[in-house]
Amino acid sequence: MLKMQNLSVQLGGLLQRKAKLLEDISCEIAQRQLVGVIGPNGAGKSTLLKSVAGIQAFTGSVRFFDKDLAKLPVAARARQLAYLPQAEVPAWQLSVRDLVSIGRLPWRGEAEDKSVARVAAAMDKTDSAALAERTVDTLSGGELKRVQVARLLASSAPLLVADEPIAALDLAHQWQVMELLRREARAGRTLLVAIHDLALAARFCDRLLLLDRGRLHGFGTPQQILNEENLANVFGVDAALRNIDGVPVLMHRGLRSV
Ligand SMILES: Nc1ncnc2c1ncn2[C@@H]1O[C@H](COP(=O)(O)OP(=O)(O)OP(=O)(O)O)[C@@H](O)[C@H]1O
């Protein structure tokens, strides 16, 4: 289980203006769940994910199965969680296969064949096997994103943290990646995924964590979180919600504010 307690992020030193990016986020996420982190631009989604991933300083605690993630040595933490940043542009002319293999680095002492098999499986699942020998700097934005998702999936970490993993993907690949992430949850992993597409979040996520200006506005099932009040008050849109096959579907009426 992933447990955040009073997680806060504040920027600025003694003489600088202080900015609260996250304020007292407390939330418990069960194992085997795909959790969508939603909220408008600037709500704090990336900051939350970076805090959980251990690359953003914060106060409070983030525990995963009773391990305080921030206190784990880096190598041990890398075996607990894999992280996909929002915008990651590889600086080297790595091959796709080598970039996906980076997901295996925390297990580099292990038998070679298992890593090779996991890398191949991750490329297959994300439709990136045909790109294996290309260098990553030649890929389109969507192809690169799929390869980066493959790197995440190649990891054996039980906690996956992904910042907008379906941004830049076409419709079919968005569905494919969401299906893959849900399957990883069903297989036992816990996933925390920032996502802007509320329709896909409603369709695939087990729980939604709604942030508004650095605060936790709500945590619950898509049915509980995606209501007309939250859409108006948090996202500033006037929308009607219709229930189709048990999934809330948004019908936009207009903007409340921009
Ligand atoms: N280093 C920083 N200095 C000042 N402000 C920052 C810094 N990092 C983040 N912020 C601010 O913190 C807020 C939250 O940023 P964050 O990237 O977490 O938002 P987000 O919800 O992921 O947004 P988006 O949907 O646009 O990706 C934003 O207003 C951002 O400008």
Present as ligands are:
adenosine-5'-triphosphate
Average pLDDT over all residues:
92
Distance between the termini: 37 Å
The CATH homologous superfamily of the largest domain is named P-loop containing nucleotide triphosphate hydrolases
How much of the sequence lies in strands comes to 25-35%
Q: Please summarize the sheet with the most strands.
A: 6 strands, mixed
Q: If helices are DSSP runs of H or I spanning 4 or more residues, what is the number of helices?
A: 9
CATH topology of the largest domain: Rossmann fold
Number of strands: 12
Strand order of the largest sheet: 6-7-8-3-9-10
Q: What is the number of independent domains?
A: 2
The CATH architecture assignment of the largest domain turns out to be: 3-Layer(aba) Sandwich
Structural class: alpha/beta
Low-confidence stretches: none
Per CATH, the class of the largest domain reads Alpha Beta
Globally, the shape reads globular
Q: Percent range for helical residues?
A: 25-40%
Domain ABC transporter: 2-238
GO molecular function: ATP binding
Protein name: ABC transporter ATP-binding protein
InterPro entries: AAA+_ATPase (IPR003593), ABC_transporter-like_ATP-bd (IPR003439), ABC_transporter-like_CS (IPR017871), P-loop_NTPase (IPR027417)
